[in-house]
Amino acid sequence: MRTPVIAIFDVGKTNKKLFLFNEQYQIVFERSARFTETIDEDGDPCENLESLRLSVFDSLHEVFRKPEFEVRAINFAAYGASLVYVDADGKPLAPLYNYLKPYPVNLQRKFYESYGGEEQLAYTTASPVLGSLNSGLQLYRIKYEKPALFERIHYALHLPQYLSFLISGGMYSDMTSIGCHTHLWDFSRNDYHEWVRQEGIIEKLAPLAPGDEVFPASFPGNGYGVGVGLHDSSAALIPYLVSFHEPFVLISTGTWCITLNPFNHTPLTKAELDADCLCYMHYKGAPVKASRLFAGYEHEQQVKRIAAHFGQPTSRYRNMAYNAGIVHKLRQQTEGPQSIGGKVSAFNQRNLSDYQSFEEAYHRLMMDLVDLQQQSTRLVIKGSQVGRIFVDGGFSKNAIYMNLLADAFPEMEVFAASMAQATAVGAALAIHHVWNKRTLPNDLIALRFYAHAHQQEGTNNEF
Fold first, then answer.
1. Residue ranges making up the domain that contains 414
2. Positive or negative CA dihedral for 233, 238, 240, 244?
3. Strands 388-393 and 230-231, how do they pair?
4. Domain named Carbohydrate kinase FGGY N-terminal: which ranges (predicted)?
5. 296 plus 428 within the same structural domain
6. 90: region left, alpha or beta (phi > 0 left; psi from -120 to 50 alpha)
7. Is the pLDDT of residue 227 over 80?
8. What 8-state DSSP symbol labels residue 304?
9. CATH number, domain at 375?
10. What is the CB neighbour count within 10 angstroms for residue 323?
11. Spatial distance between the Cα atoms of 444 and 432, rounded to a whole number of angstroms
12. What is the mean pLDDT of residues 270-294?
């Protein structure tokens, strides 16, 4: 008996993974690859598109040769702000330029001066000004710096949709990619921004397809459908949207700690944009208000500083228990530096000689990071009826972070959430109706509840 499965390609900047999920959303096969980056014509590093293309085909050939699996569908999740410029046959015409590539200052100035200024454009497109990370500006750049190339472009496909095209032969755009800090989408009008039409960019964008749409395959094999592909941050939210119906926010922690609130429908304000808030788009086409914090990166740098000071390995913090006594002691010491503009925590300026041990200094670091996280998360909770916070990723396994977060939000239920491969599972769930006849499992996400200090002491039974 062959096991019905869905194949999901989860393409990150570093790791490219293929998963097969059975109808219970358990991983029954996985393959991982890493490619050496290549360089574009300016010598800047960029994705090796040809290696990626061949890897997709090789992986599928391998899967189709396995007699124990019946592939019913394929879908893709990939990082955003990355465009593949193709001709009418789908052949790439240029490198996949890196979203970290420096953006020309004069061209950026010209763009914003032409279309109402940075503040106005950031407001209507629900995105901070981010240079090449605003992927619409990458296409604008080609128009003015490489007009001959611009003429030859049939479509500019975001990376998830290019991967989908490789298997389906269909060229489409998807809202989760178009709506994520691209400057292409006007959230106030729920349509492409006026500049996209005025600059002739609209002709270079493939027709929009819903995130749960499925197309027939042109790749060998039979009887399976191909999803349109999803932006990875939007895909990772889907398991939570499917599993929980009471309003919640998700703090997705890694190098960036991103708070996603699918239940906040108030427009972004200038203050929120200045504080690095933006809107993502979930796969059903509704905006998801989000705030970003570079907290995972700061944590990594400061742990190195603490470890060097106390002559301990950086891994020392990994299994450290939460010590309420240390937290109480440190809270009595109210003097000290404050966070820098809501972006960097106060710990950056602290003197490590003030702490008696690695444990004490590490608790202070986590208190400072959670203070910053509280500010960031409250920005997107404001204006919505949210009662729960889910935390996934690295910090969800950190007992000190989780206990401090529960204290920072005493009015909320705070949970550490764990699930294997949320992004890949989300891409599979988006097209569940096509390949899976079973009802959705109710145990996709494991939760661990963290009570705040008053609850632990039994002095507050309200929550």
1. 233-463
2. positive
3. unpaired
4. 6-196
5. yes
6. left
7. yes
8. H
9. 3.30.420.40
10. 17
11. 14
12. 90
